[in-house]
Amino acid sequence: MRPASASSDTASTENVIEHVIGWLRENEGREPDRIVLLQPTSPIRRKSLVSDCLKRFLDSGADSLLSVSPSSIFLWSDMQDPKAYSDFKCRPRRQDIPDSSRLFEENGSVYVFSTEGFASSQNRLFGKIV
Length: 130
What we know:
The chain is α+β, with helices and mostly antiparallel strands. The protein has three helices and five strands. The chain is 27% helix and 22% strand. The protein has a three-stranded antiparallel beta sheet. Strands 3-4 form a two-stranded antiparallel sheet. A hairpin with a 5-residue loop joins strand 3 and strand 4. The radius of gyration is 19 Å and the shape is globular.
């Protein structure tokens, strides 16, 4: 069971990770080298995603990894008074958007990071991020 500090509506994922690392250290006398975080709010993953992410993390020499999804450059805010973040009168076709202009959204499906780096940064993303 998690303590109240890692179970409230305001607890962060980092609070929970800290608790798990501490619990493993105190109760099992071990600490993992790396952590693979799968958020339950993103339950749908293709079959090989986790192993693909772990392989990329290990092969790249990264300190942390996150999964992302392509995002449209056609973003809007404030639906009561809509504001466009791009020129909607001069909209390119998606396939014509150059790779250098593409944006990606953190999707929360998979994070991989070293326990040591997490301890120093207190965050799941740090150092060399892939």
